[in-house]
Fold this protein.
Amino acid sequence: MKRFSRSFFVALFVFVLALGGVSYGAEHYATTDMTWAEFYAGETGQTSTTLEELGLDAISTPTTKAITYFPLVISSSNDKGSTLSGVKAVQVRMSDEVYEALKGNARYDFSRYTFTDETFSEYKVVSKDGSFGKMVTETTVAEDAEVKLLSGADARWGSYMLELSNAAAIDIGTQPEDGHHGIARNFLGATIETSDGMIYGLRHDSNIWRSSSDIAITVNDAYVESHGTGLVRDYDYTASLVGKTITKITYMLKDLPDVEINCNVAVEPVATVRAKNPEGGMSATGGDLKVDFEFENVPDGVSYVVDKVQLGGGKGADTLEEDTDYTVSGTSITLKEAAAGFYRVTFEPSDDSVNILAGFYVKDAHYATTDMSYAEFYAAETGESAEALLSEGLDAISSATTYGHGYFPLADGKVVDGRGVISGLKAVQVYISNDVYENLTDKSRFTFINASDVAFKEYKVLSADGIFGKMVTATKEAEGAEVKVDSGASSAWGTYTVSISGAEIDFGTLPSDGHHGTARNLLGATLETDDGKIYGLRHDSNLWSEPKIALSINDKYIESHTREPRDYEYTEDLAGKSIKKITYMLKDLPDVVINCDAKLMN
């Protein structure tokens, strides 16, 4: 009988696998969207979590057109501005082992990948933990490029600007399409490396723009964006660059060799100036407005004087006339009949150093935060007065636990006599017109937001009679959401437990104590019934740290922690009604609307 060698059986095994269509040692290619932190993790040698903690996160801009200049960037916009959150359709490669591991991991979102039969020459390698390595690509060095650091009035975009010359060969896009703006079709991103070995990932619109000639670096809140909201450009991630020396800049280009520029640029501390805003923020009331300024990092013996005051940003700014439009007293100015808009003040030094700028925004109204009782918060949402809601039972609630309110950072909770008490919402954002502000008798309940901060995109409008209006915010419908009502022994929370499944609703973060999640984004919720009535829901009594709602209609449901009935007076008339709509009110996120037809049996 003929004997076969071991190598023969190995070859036969591989042949059989091939016949069966099994991939052995295959590589898989795909594209996937990545956050900034995911994209730059491999480039910087840090984890995406670490980068997010350092501040490398989504950025917002007051313009809605800017995102069109960056086709490779994940972006969204509304009438308030734009958000840029990462890089889209990044090319990746994964081994068969990684492919099978991630596909079989129920906790991993494998659907994020779009697989292709194409073989990429430029890609990031996917690891078993789902992280993405450094971009595999060709590189070239721009030998003739020169880098200059600008600061003060010369830095138009931030605290500093890196101005690159002789770098025209870097192909980040095409010829301008709208007269002066170019479309950066090839611009994936960029990094800067410092002499201590630290590498920083740069973001479009915040650090990099539509040409290879400028990079903006912002390191504190003294630089104010000029488009019209008084936005302080994001600076947390790049603040640590001060005192370091930049040794390399790398432009990451789509399907082209990346371009490296070697340099030796020291980021030395420079003098800065910022507006000191009056209480209530800077608001245009038609009268005079005095603005003081504070200076930092001013060298000994150097002083500054006001050189120029402008209204508006960019090349279209109007230069104001001293004594006619404003007066100067030392380093303070007083705007005469101050109009709403963005102002920029140029200060000239007594030595030969650069001019420095202070930008500030005069608003057409006041923005503030204030704590509200549940009745105040839900009055406009339900169409009833706060007094009527209080009489119906929508009041503060108490819990037997001393920690339950801790799961709701937006709720106004504290411990009283060994019980957790939640009385309403804290630091709710409010818009107050100038007329209403001038006639406010009690301004002390409000914490006013300085004009250097972004005007709120989500707020309640305060009326002249002191009533807070319905929340002004974006909304979205939770498509595919399913609503289930349990009652009796099946209801773990109250007379009824309403569960929502099939939709992702961003309440907050991962569990914070092993099983309870901290619902950092949950402001509140309302439910509307078939008779048109709208109910405001309270944390801990009706709402928890997941999409689940408890409703009690009598004293028969006994709370397990206290052996006492759960608060039910406000919702006791729900029996026999059908819930037609549930709205989750989320902090700085679109409210989520769930349309349904859920019967609450008698």
User: Anything to note?
Assistant: The first strand starts at residue 27 and ends at 35. Residues 1-24 have pLDDT under 50 and may be disordered. Residues 516 and 545 are 7 Å apart (CA to CA). The first helix runs from residue 6 to 19.
